[in-house]
Amino acid sequence: MSRSLVQPVGQKRLTNVAVVRLKKRGTRFEIACYKNKVLSWRSGVEKDLDEVLQSHTVYTNVSKGILAKTKDLNAAFDSDDQTKICLEILDKGELQVAGKERESQLSSQFRDIATIVMQKTYNPETRRPYTISLIESLMHEIHFAVDPHRGSKKQALEVIHELQKHFPIKRSPMRLRLIVPEQEFSSLSEKLTAWNATIVSKDQTGSQISIICELDPGFYRDCEGLMMKLHGRYEVLALSVHAEGDTVIDQYDDHEDEPSRSLNESSDFDLSKKKESTDSDLLKKELADPMLKLSNEMQKQSISTGKGTVASEGKQNKCNTCNAFVGDSKQYRDHFKSEWHKHNLKRKTRQLPSLTEVECAADMEMDDHKADLKDYSF
User: Fold this and answer.
1) U1-type domain: from which residue to which, for each copy (predicted)?
2) What is the Cα–Cα distance from 54 to 36, expressed in whole angstroms?
3) Is residue 104 part of a domain?
4) What's the CATH code of the domain at 165?
């Protein structure tokens, strides 16, 4: 009788899944779900159960593929309906996520908490909100740890109370519109003074008085109860108020003929005029004396080479043969093909010092004149 050969299975099943686990009456039950779908189901975004569950099967160990026994299901859930039990585990069970996914979730919630803190607080000196990067660094300094099982808003309020113990930070006030009968205004005014509220505006219409005030959010519930007691109405205009606009307003002259200049601009303007007059005088002299022109060009080349050394220090595109910086990588490659570099390379083989670009052009022109003179016999 032939016996079939049993070969080992190399495929691991149900490994790349999100496991939801629920322990009930001493037995652990698990279901296999698609990643990133459990939270969507619990938040109500995903409605299709087949898009969440990989199989309508209850396990005792998903990674090993061990199915739950029917008697255990009846003992724990009083039913053996797999789909119904999967729904209960999906709603009440604990989601087992991987390390990277958990880290990404905590990082996202940390950012959400920092954003809420930024929106609800301000710097008391400037009355402007702190940047979110600064809020995050302050949260790291107080060693804040995110609790994934609690809401971001509640944790943000706790972070604000903790930050106020160590850093200059205050809650942004709320802006409210309060409308009360005229005879109740004195009672409202006393309470607002006790709450350190700031009255922005006051308006009276008939027998009612309407005021707009900025109040600390901690007194919002007390204010709500007071308005019900005084038979008034209230309206929330802004949940958090920060300073707006620039702190310094630039003043401009009313002259339309000539735009106003600052001290630096006027000095630069005068210097440019002086430079233009100097350049024109120098041009006349160069036309009269060609040797002066060549010396000035050599001087300009040396000055530009010195400036290029400072500007290009970070790029380090320096030609050691020519002892000069030649700019970016493209200019650096083109420089090796130039006559300047080739001429200095010949001088280097003869152990002669390198020349600047203008000096090199003059030297090559002199060599051409010598070569022309050799063609004539005197």
Assistant:
1) 314-348
2) 13
3) yes
4) 1.10.10.900
Residue 289 lies in a domain: no
Structure tokens that stand for 265 in this block? 């601009």
Radius of gyration (C-alpha) of the chain in whole angstroms: 41
Domain span at residue 358?
320-373
Query: Based on the domain organization, do 325 and 355 belong to the same domain?
Result: yes
Q: For 286-300, write each residue's pLDDT tens digit.
A: 555 555 554 565 555
pTM greater than the 0.70 cutoff: no
CATH code, 226: 3.30.70.240
Rounded to 5 degrees, what angle do the CA atoms 369, 375, 378 make? 100
Tell me, what amino acid is at 262? S
Q: Can you tell me whether residue 215 is helix, strand or coil?
A: strand
The pLDDT value recorded for residue 267 is 43
Rounded to an integer, what distance in angstroms lies between the CA atom of residue 42 and that of residue 231? 42
What is the distance between the alpha carbons of residues 371 and 378, in angstroms, rounded to a whole number? Answer: 15
The C-alpha atoms of residue 226 and residue 181 are separated, in whole angstroms, by 13
